[in-house]
Amino acid sequence: MLVVNRFRVPEPEAAVFREDLVRAHEVLAAQKGYVAGVVGRNVDDPELWTLATRWEHVGAYRRALSTYDAKLTAVPILSRALDEPSAYELVEPGAGLNEAVPRRFGPTETG
């Protein structure tokens, strides 16, 4: 699973934001199920930043966010991300894709 968080950060805040984002990435990288990740800054628009991480599966990512360290360090910075979908499935040759259908969480009513 791939998670791409993008951020719009005014230039005067860039130095502090960078430190916070790197620290958040370090905390996430220490979590079970983390595979890899990078922090990036757009070459054409220096106010646009990204944190891209790979996880064994969506459950690992969600559990990582619920840890004490992540709640203190990563979640506050991730809350600054642009309001857009951030979780992606990896598309590999010959592999099936998730179905594009609404998903239900929890018990459903029948009848």
Automatic annotation (TrEMBL):
Residues 2-67 form the ABM domain. It holds the Pfam family ABM. Gene3D superfamilies: 3.30.70.100. This is ABM domain-containing protein.
